[in-house]
Amino acid sequence: MDKPIMTGSLESSDCLITLYETDTPIIEVDTIVHDAFHDHILHLIKDVLKHYDLEHLSVRIQDKGALDYAIKARLKAAIEIYEDDSNG
C-alpha cells in the first residue's frame, strides 16, 4: 500500500476510516461519543480486521456518531480497496 486508503466522511452520523500499513498495528479511535462508545468501536474494528485476517494493518476512525453498520461498511470498503490494490 503506497498511500493510506480513506473511506467515509466527516458528516454527522458518519465516520472517516483511514487504513494504512505501519510497522506496529495501531487502532486510533477519535469519536464524539468517546465516553460511551470508544471501547465498543475499538472492539468492532478489531473484530472486522480479524475476520479478514488483516490484523497487521492500522486503522484510524474519526467518528461523528456513526452506527455500527456504517462503521463496518466504511471499514469493509477500505479493506476491499486494499485487497484490490494488493492483488492487482
How would you explain this protein's 3D organization?
The chain is α+β, with helices and mostly antiparallel strands and 88 residues long. It has a single domain, classed as Ribosomal Protein S5, domain 2 (2-Layer Sandwich). It is built from 2 helices and 4 strands, in the order βββαβα. A 4-stranded mixed β-sheet has the order 1-2-4-3, covered by helices on one side. The radius of gyration is 12 Å and the shape is globular.
Total number of distinct structural domains: 1
Number of strands: 4
According to CATH, what is the topology? Answer: Ribosomal Protein S5, domain 2
Task: Please count the helical segments.
Answer: 2
* N-to-C SSE string, H for helix and E for strand: EEEHEH
Overall structural class, as computed from helix and strand content, comes to alpha+beta
Roughly what is the average pLDDT, rounded to an integer?
A: 96
- Report the sheet-strand fraction: 25-35%
CATH architecture: 2-Layer Sandwich
Separation of the first and last Cα atoms: 11 Å
